[in-house]
Amino acid sequence: MVIKDSLEVHIARLEADPVIAPERNSSLLDIFTADYSENFRSPTNQSPLVDRVWAHAALIYLFVVVSGWQPASGEVRYHVRRILDLLKHQISPPALLRTMVWPFCLAGCLAEPAQEACFQGMVDALQPPSVFGTVRKALEIMKNVWQNRGTPDAASRDFATWFGDQGDLVLLV
């Protein structure tokens, strides 16, 4: 599959490159990481890490579109685990999660029960809640998936169905 191969090559390149610190205010991404309780300070350049999260999410999405809803698949579990590891251990500050709501939600929807608390904890850490409405909406979607995991129609669903379950049109950007 050409798309899958291309994404995997891209991820390998991203993982081989070191994260380089930018000059102050050099990235639009830095604006999203500003802390509202203090003056703006530019963090270390997180763009390669953000790119990796998005690339892993693209592979998850591609897998579900091609093969169906299979959260127990080794390939899905690998990419969910990679996204979770990147978000928990390498992305800083936590507010940067605002730039990765769609990948965060995809990974969370397909997370194993043991991983649910990690996703919940990342959202709980974001304060004030009013600034992170989209992240909280993503968590609502994930919780709905988690609660309906064992239902007979769960395996026949896809992301569009889960995202539309609450009657809202959801755009996670």
From TrEMBL:
Please state what the protein is called.
Transcription factor
PANTHER family reported for this sequence: PRO1A C6 ZINK-FINGER PROTEIN, TRANSCRIPTIONAL ACTIVATOR PROTEIN UGA3
Return the Pfam families for the record: Fungal_trans_2
Keyword Coiled coil tagged: no
Chief localization class? nucleus
Name any GO cellular component annotation.
nucleus
| InterPro entries in the record | Fun_TF
Q: Does the keyword Nucleus apply?
A: yes
- Compartments reported by the entry: Nucleus
Starting at the broadest rank, the lineage of the source organism is: Eukaryota, Fungi, Dikarya, Ascomycota, Pezizomycotina
List the source organism: Hyphodiscus hymeniophilus
* UniProt keyword list: Nucleus
